[in-house]
Amino acid sequence: MAKEGNVAVRLGLFVLAGTLALVVGMYLLGSKRGLFSSTITVSADFRQVGGLRPGNNVRYAGINVGTVDRLTIINDSTVRVEMALREDQAGHIHANAIVSIGSDGLMGNKLVNIEPGDGTSGAVSDGGTLATSVPLDTDAMLETLDRTNENLAAITTDLRQLAERLNRPGSVLDLFSDTVLAIQLRGSLVELNTAASAARGATEQANALIADVRAGKGALGTLVGDPVAEQQVKGLLKQLQQLSDSLSGAAGEVERFSTGLNDPKGLAHTLTQDTAVAGDVRRSLANLEKGSETLNENLKALQRNWLFRRYFKEKEKADDKEKRIKRDGRSRP
């Protein structure tokens, strides 16, 4: 009987110890969740809460100040989050604070973050509503990171292929390591520099020439800036045009004369192309020349004849007198 009583006492002590441990654990858990402290209720409206649940923590400046009490769907675009904040810490939260939804670490549970707002305002009150900001979508971040990883993998593959191509014989790197090519490139650069200097000098000379022309210096500047020279040039061009017209007319006349020479019915063609007519003309000219010589001889014979000698002497005196009058007239001042 004594042994059975001892067992019962021990069992009672064990149950009592277990009960005390359960009470202490519930107290500690309740104190963490704020079950045994005074709270106030504050709400905030979101478009989406990203998996937030009742009981998740509410943090202000990185410190747990309450828990999520209830989630209510107001309409198709609004979800209301009601938070239970401990009253002793809610006094530090102002009414212009900003509420957002985050996570405890990268992959941790969802929670509500409260950040101080701009400006000054009073402390938040029971039943108040806080402004919200767009929560950070972890899924969208992971999708973006996934696309970024794919892009990095593709870029890495391309870089590896490019490195393999550059390491092959006959690649661009072999050209860079060729000393002869480097010397040729250096010479080409020197020639390019010389050509650039020459082009720069030509440009400066052209600019100086343009400046002289604008200032009226030099022959070109005189032609451009002097109105008198301009008129003279215009007159010269006009004369050249008239000369060109005269030459065109003369060319037309020559063309018509050439056409007349080539016309079998024309006199010029007959005189130049018909050998018989040409012979007749030559004989006629020869006869005329002989007749002229005979006429001169006859005139000389008449001058020696005594019948006409007086006439020719008087005519000779008259000619000498006329010559003397003309000579005296030219000699007078």
Helix share of residues?
A: 55-70%
Q: How far from one another are the termini?
A: 195 Å
- H-E order: HEEEEHEEEHHHHHHHH
As an assembly, this protein is: single chain
Give the overall average pLDDT: 75
Indicate the radius of gyration in whole angstroms.
Answer: 65 Å
Low-pLDDT residue spans? none
Class based on secondary structure composition and strand pairing = alpha/beta
Largest sheet: 7 strands, mixed
Main sheet: which strands, in order across?
Answer: 1-4-3-2-6-5-7
Number of DSSP helices? Answer: 10
Total beta strands: 7
In what range is the share of β-strand residues?
A: 5-15%
Give the overall shape, derived from the CA principal axes: rod-shaped
Question: Tags for this entry?
Answer:
333 residues, alpha/beta, seven-stranded mixed β-sheet, 10 helices, 7 strands, 14% strand
Explain what this protein looks like in three dimensions.
- With 333 residues, the protein is α/β, with parallel strands linked by helices.
- Among the domains are: 32-141; 151-215; 274-313.
- It has 10 helices and 7 strands.
- Strands 1-4-3-2-6-5-7 form a 7-stranded mixed beta sheet.
- Strand 3 (63-75) and strand 4 (78-86) form a beta hairpin.
- It is rod-shaped.
- It starts with a helix and ends with a helix.
- The model has no long low-confidence stretch (mean pLDDT 75).
